[in-house]
Amino acid sequence: MINSLRKEIRYGLRNNTFLILFAVFFFFAFMTPVMLKILPEVLKSKFPGFPLQELVNMTQLGCLQSYMGDVLEIGTLLVSLALCGLLAQEIRDNTLVLPLCAGQSYSGIIAAKMLVFGTAVLLIPLAALVTGYLYAGLLFSFDTGILPVITGGLLQGFYMVYLLSLLLLFGTLTKNPIATALLTLAVNYGLYFAGSLLDIHRYLPSGLLREAQQLQNTIPLQAAVITLAIIIACAFLASRTLQTLEWSKK
After folding, report:
1. From CA 153, how far away is CA 114, in angstroms rounded?
2. pLDDT tens-digit map of 228-238
3. What is the pLDDT of residues 115-148, one digit of tens each?
4. Cα→Cα distances 85→43, 58, 190, Å
5. Three-state SS for 216?
């Protein structure tokens, strides 16, 4: 297991995967407060009397909620593209033979990827949200407590772990990185649309992001438990599917 963890860490460093994830979240964390600070001045000069205050929440809380909205709409896309090759590319290139020959199990390979990259997508969103909280507070004012921000960051990170589990499962099914990313995005955006249409976010992983955006230091237990069950199921199915694929190639 230790060797599998080292392999995944080296993969993430060699392919700049950790750097890409860091850049995605911190870009929005820094740019959102700046844009909300500059936007009023630009609109005032171009459109005097424009009722901007009625349309945009230009506070620390508004910055954080806008940031999390960007992560849902754009961050999910970029994370999916960054991580879509974690397993699909290895299957496609047949490079999984090396760790298997070294005695690593199918479940160990999946577990190592979930631990290494799951930790990354859990902690990086949290760090980015806390950074955005501090930066927005300096630009505007500190009108939000830190505990709701930490809770929101963890919920957002937990959602990204769920996204990772889907990418690993679909990677074993499609064996194609781009197809894996597209299928994952279709499922995520489709569930979010269904949750909004039927008002069932509390039963879906999207409920984590909806609750995180409220920044009220509450945890949606139903959505969290269901998301955890989906993560475990995806990891198990990915391991079983991977075993079938490898077995059929012998």
Report:
1. 19
2. 999 999 999 99
3. 999 999 999 999 999 999 999 999 888 988 899 9
4. 42, 38, 22
5. coil
